[in-house]
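Exercise: predict the fold of this chain.
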Amino acid sequence: MNLCDHPLVGKLISLGLERGDFVVAGSGPLLAHGLRSSVGDLDVVARGAAWKRATELADPVPAPSGYGLMVLLFDGGLEIFDRWLPGTPGPDELIEGAEWIQGLPFCPLREVLEWKRTALRRKDLKDILLIQKHLDGEVLDHD
């Protein structure tokens, strides 16, 4: 699947954010790995020029986690955060640890798995199983 064909990824690209200043978090990495064909929104962690650009497009509001700020764009289709969830690495570490897929930075699945296991929300259970099965397959493929 060409990620650029996904409507939310297309919207993200249309913003022209500095590629070294953001990373796609949340369920976006599952989309990038083909584990999900759709997501309700894209969660993006941004810093520097990318965060500045986001705040030029809309006013930041408190993040639902109560940790940091977020900018909502495209009727909530894109949620751009200045930091990720409480207890997770800061934006610099997340962005610098990104996995690049089709020219876009995504949080590695192992990190996504940790967050989803910690949150353990009902909506995360299926994703946890998908990621674990995928990662188990990678281990088997390398033997």
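Check your answer against the key: Residues 125-141 form the longest helix (17 residues).
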